[in-house]
Amino acid sequence: MAKRVKARKIVKGYAEGEALVSQMALGFNHGVDPKTGVIKENDHVLQGVSMKGKVFVFPNGRGSTGGSYALYRVVQEGGGPTAMILKKADPIVIAGAVMSQCPTVDMLENGAYDEIKTGDYIKVDATNGIVEIIKKGER
Amino acid sequence: MYLNEEEKKMLNGEMGEPLRFAMELLTTLGEVNGAEIMIPIKHAHIAGLSFKTHGVAGCEWAERMADLGATVRVPTTFNVSGWDPTRDLGYPKKWTEYSKRITSAYMRMGIHGISSCVPYFVGYVPRLGESVAWAESSAVVYCNSILGARDNREGGPSALAAALTGRTPEYGMHLTENRRGDVLFKVTTPLKNITDYGALGHFIGKQINTKIAVIDGLSDINSRNDELLSMGACMAVLGAPTMFHVVGVTPEAPTLEAAFGGKTKYEVIEFGKKELEDSYHALTNAKNRYVDYVSIGCPHANLDQIKEVADLLDGKKVKDGVMFLVHTNMGIKEIARQLGYLETIEKAGAIVTQGFCSPLGDPEDFGLKVMATNSAKTAFYGPHGNRMDTWFGSIDKCVEAAVTGYWSY
User: Do the domain assignments include residue B205?
Assistant: First the structure.
């Protein structure tokens, strides 16, 4: 059964897609291939996995402020996620999300953030601050 | 957030895309941080302008903004770009080409391309209590701590957004209640120079994160601004502080009580002789004593440091195979030229760069391996960001290493 929860809008917009969940923070600066969306950061648990077309779920950004420009480039060149869900958004990801106009939310209610698993289907209505989670296999 | 009529027009795009972007970013940051209103700023300083940070994406984004008519509303300067337009230090062609394009895009927005991390050394000195929007972590700390002006830890895009709108959301360091000290550091050993102050910055930075350090024990010593700058710069690369207080020295800390704003319970940490020595060791990772790169001026050297280097180098020669760079900006370099300091330094075979610095300029790409520096910030980045073995010590030790090619201490 689909679960609908409230979230905080960071950048407005609507998008849906399969979730890609990262347990780790991600530095977009030199960390993601802009065309394929493949995560390149050496020590990252998702190294080699692509975020292209996914709803990317991650705790927050890390690394230098260059991450904002890098996130913009990833979205611009087609390797980017359709939407982002963060545990708590940080200024670097916020700036990159605003620059690229990628629908983004954070601070999901009722512990929903921790329930999302890779492969779940997610509808992100950032404009109204609503996230719908359809568990894998229930669609 | 409450927005006035003009701010609403900016946000809904009536005043063009650059202002729409800027106001969307500022309102988002404001709402996330609990701001209620926008406040005017008097000056902005934009950072993250090197090709290393901007990349192709940032360059093209800035050019698009400039094409769309982005124009700053308040005096705005920009940070060190990691590229010296006056000389060929051996950069890859792509680096030079993109550095030029990034600089020119921001200049088209009306920004002064001073390419320096120390805007306050070229005349931008905000007053006590005045709000600004500065990026560059060392400048943020200098601004709040030493000048008593008010500034959050901005990134490149948010500082630009503030410059374009002339506003910033009122939260964090713009509010008096957030400027009180959190932890007391008692300094019980004398600090002699920039390097010692940098070592103290390292000690504080590794345990402070975003807290505000109150430092006591320095008031009897003549804590110069460039020494406090060196301390704050190193603090700001290990943690994410926006401010420190030095009791009896910095403007918002006339007394210990004032620095803590009435707080009476706080952690007390001592910094003595042993802690000073430990910090020196932590900032030195080299074993090989044959130095091939010497770097002074991070943050950018002021006139006193350039004169000190000139006096130490007078009549000597930098050893063959050693690159000795002193980093500053075009303003201080020009004064040094007219006063004759530059000639002495260049005669000895050292180079005074402008708009360049070691952490951003990637000296390792020139084939250099072992660095000596008097900057705690550069020493911290040495092994991590620049893959170089690093010796950390005072200016006279660094100059000696440049002349002999050997770190003898």
Answer: yes
Is B28 within 8 Å of chain A by CB?
A: yes
Domain match, B146 and B278 both: no
What's the total number of domains in chain B? 3
Interchain contact A11–B (C-beta under 8 A): yes
**Percent of chain B scored above 90 by pLDDT?**
83
- ipTM topping 0.90: no
φ, ψ for residue B123, nearest 5 deg: 110, -10
Asked if B325 has any chain A CB less than 8 Å from its own CB, the reply is no
- The verdict on residue B235 lying in a domain is yes
Within 8 A by CB and 6+ apart from B6, the residues are: none
Q: Are residues B148 and B218 in the same domain?
A: no
B146 falls within a domain: yes
Domain co-membership, B272 together with B312: no
Domain of residue B124 covers: 5-176
The amino acid that residue A57 corresponds to is V
Q: What is the pTM of this model?
A: 0.92
Average pLDDT taken over every residue of chain A: 92
Say if B287 falls within a structural domain: no
Domain boundaries, chain A: 3-134
Shared domain check, B158 and B21: yes
Which CATH code is given to the segment(s) A3-134?
A: 3.50.30.10
Distance from CA of B54 to the nearest CA of A (A): 6
Contacts of A10 in chain B (CB under 8 A): 28, 32
Task: Supply the CATH number for residue B357's domain.
Answer: 3.30.499.10
What 3-state class would DSSP assign to B155? coil
Known catalytic residues of A? 64
Residue among A64, A73, A98 minimizing CB distance to B21: A98
Indicate the average pLDDT of chain B: 94
Question: Token digits for A11?
Answer: 């950048």
Does residue B58 sit at the A interface (CB-CB below 8 Å)?
A: yes
The per-residue pLDDT for range A71-112, each reduced to its tens digit, is 998 999 999 999 999 999 988 899 999 999 999 999 999 999
φ, ψ of residue A14 in degrees (nearest 5): -130, 140
* Cα of B308 to nearest chain A Cα, Å: 33
**Does A64 contact B48 at a Cβ distance shorter than 8 Å?**
yes
pLDDT tens string B304-326: 999 999 999 999 999 999 999 99
Query: Using CA atoms, how far apart are residues B341 and A66, in angstroms rounded to an integer?
Result: 36
Residue in chain A lying closest to B152 (CA):
A91
Claim to verify: residue B168 and residue B271 sit in the same structural domain: no
Cβ-Cβ contacts under 8 Å for B238 (sequence gap 6 or more): B201, B202, B205, B206, B208, B380
- B56/A72 CB distance under 8 A: no
